[in-house]
Amino acid sequence: MPFNVWCEGCGHLIGKGVRFNAEKQEIGKYHSTKIWSFTMTAPCCQQRIEVQTDPKNAQYNVVSGGKQKVNQHMSCCTQHVCCNSQSDQSMQGSCSML
Ligand SMILES: [Zn+2]
Questions:
Q1: How many structural domains compose the chain?
Q2: Distance from Cα 42 to the centre of ligand 1, integer Å
Q3: Which of 19, 29, 62, 86 is most enclosed, with most CB atoms within 10 A?
Q4: Is 95 part of a structural domain of the chain?
Q5: What's the CA-to-centroid distance between 24 and ligand 1, angstroms?
């Protein structure tokens, strides 16, 4: 999971970095960039959560089953080094989404 998501099935917060066995599906294109849909089952209550990539805004969108905890910083975050950084310290310092 590339961000924190509230599970709509039970209200559980699924943390950023939790790994899922997602089903990956190409659902379209934005210019030459493929748009992917990931469908996964929440670990808390078997809720199905669908996430799509959004190449236009360089972010992810939760389309069903859950809600992104914070989304107003998404476009900022995905463009900044903080989200790709291996350092927890720099991530926490510069990225309020985390
Ligand atoms: Zn749940």
A1: 1
A2: 6
A3: 62
A4: no
A5: 21
Domain span including residue 43: 5-88
Cα(59) to centroid(ligand 1), Å: 23
Tokens of 98: 């985390």
Quick: pLDDT tens for 25-84. 999 999 999 999 999 999 899 999 999 999 999 999 999 999 998 655 544 444 444 444
Regarding pTM above 0.85, the answer is no
Q: How far is the CA of 49 from the centre of ligand 1 (A)?
A: 10
Is 72 inside any structural domain? yes
Q: How many CB atoms lie within 10 A of CB 23?
A: 12
